[in-house]
Amino acid sequence: MNDILKKIVEAKHIVILSNIDNIAGASALYTHIIRLHKKVSLVCREKNCNKEFNLKYSFLPWFDKIKDFKPASADCVIEFDNSCVSLYEYFQKSNMKINSKMATALYSGLLQESESFTNKIVNGTIFAMAKELIECGAQIEICSKYMLKTSTLSSLRLKSKMLGEFLLEDEAKVAVFSLSSEDLKASGARVQDCDEVLKESLKLPTVEMAVLLDIDNKYEMIKIISKEI
To answer: For the whole model, what pTM was predicted?
Structure first.
């Protein structure tokens, strides 16, 4: 983070380059750079990032400013792949004030990274961070509505397909899903949308692992996730 902030100080036009999964933290950093009266552009590596499958992020500050190309005039490109937790910690250590827009973006990223305060990163420090962000003006109702309660038609179609055909193997310890390019095309979803279904299968009491296989490549493994102990 020190290197990133040094680049910001020295640059005239900064580009924050991020994946959609890191867009919450990138939004918070974008707000901070605006406060420094610097020219800044927020760019998502995914083309057409404003499409339906990313609308759950549409409440984020500056979402409507996201571009899918790098402006030619930029003299500094920040490849942002940091967690919201690490960005928050840096702001705290540097005594940087977190305003409402930054707090909202960081809180939404915290919800995502902690899987709604349920995964192994959750501890007292994480809850203290959430409390601080709320006190800084995070719009927690909006964050929860979009991050936890918003879905898309394409992801629901994909979920129906996957849950309707998966198998339990190895004494019901492994949930095995199969997917083809035609399945994705028919649903309108992306491979990334499969993660939610794989994680949902881990809620079954006997399942310890979920595996996604690619039908088109003769059942080559696409991804695998395990239940956290």
So the answer is: 0.84
